[in-house]
Design a protein that fits this description.
It is a single chain. This protein is an alpha+beta fold. The chain has a domain at 149-201. It has helices at residues 2-11, 17-21, 153-164, 168-175, 184-196, and strands spanning 41-47, 52-58, 65-68, 76-78, 83-88, 91-96, 110-117, 121-126, 136-141, 147-148. It has a 10-stranded antiparallel sheet with strand order 4-3-2-1-5-6-7-8-9-10, with helices on one face. Helix 3 (153-164) runs antiparallel to helix 4. The termini are far apart. Residues 1-21 form the signal peptide. Keywords: Signal.
Length: 202
């Protein structure tokens, strides 16, 4: 039973081969150490000073991003304060300003996947922990702290009026309940068009 369990773990990529090689009589008193396989993929990243670099990147949520680069031994981990953004395949990740775990001191933001972007707002998907399947959607106005997208009508109305209320058409649609969480990208596009046509932010 033990060997079968170890074999299944090795097949799933979770157990190192040395641990599997040990027979029942060779097992030590400690449990075999499990190794999480992290697949780095080609990408690029922009440092806090604006410089772009290429490498193999790994990110699956949480507060750090791992990089392997040619000619550099091992890998390096970056925190949100170290980067401006990074790209893995077709996915772009940026920094969500003014948002982070309440117990983290000196937080400068967290990593989030960019879902939609205009010159005035960025819509992010944020996963708090590595491998977390639960994500939250956050809206980042330029120059202001990010806000979560509430699902309830009352909370949504209050939060979105703070963000889009200076645009008359959007303010009317939000107050009348014609615009909801499923319309945030449309609201961002409408706001950007309004600003380009001469609308002035309050």
């Amino acid at each position: 039973m033990l060997i079968r369990s170890l074999t299944m773990a090795a097949a799933a990529g979770l157990l190192s081969l040395p641990a599997l090689a040990q027979g029942p009589g060779m097992m030590t008193s400690t449990m075999p150490r499990l190794h999480l396989v992290r697949n780095h993929r080609p990408g690029s990243f922009q440092l806090a000073d604006g410089r772009w670099q290429i490498g193999e990147l790994y990110y699956e949520g949480g507060e750090w991003m791992s990089v392997r680069q040619p000619g550099v031994d091992g890998r390096r981990e970056y925190l949100p304060q170290d980067l401006r953004r990074f790209v893995i395949k077709a996915d772009t990740f940026g920094i969500i300003d003014g948002y982070g775990p309440a117990d983290r001191q000196g937080s400068t933001g967290v990593f989030g996947q960019e879902l939609y972007r205009t010159p005035y707002h960025t819509l992010f998907s944020y996963r708090e922990a590595e491998g977390d399947n639960i994500s939250m959607t956050l809206l980042q106005p330029v120059g202001s702290a990010a806000v979560s997208i509430p699902q309830g009508r009352k909370a949504f109305t209050t939060a979105m009026l703070r963000v889009f209320g200076d645009c008359p058409a959007l303010a009317d649609g939000i107050q009348r309940g014609k615009l909801g969480p499923q319309h945030v990208k449309r609201m961002m596009a409408t706001y950007a068009q309004w600003r380009r046509s001469g609308g002035t932010a309050g």
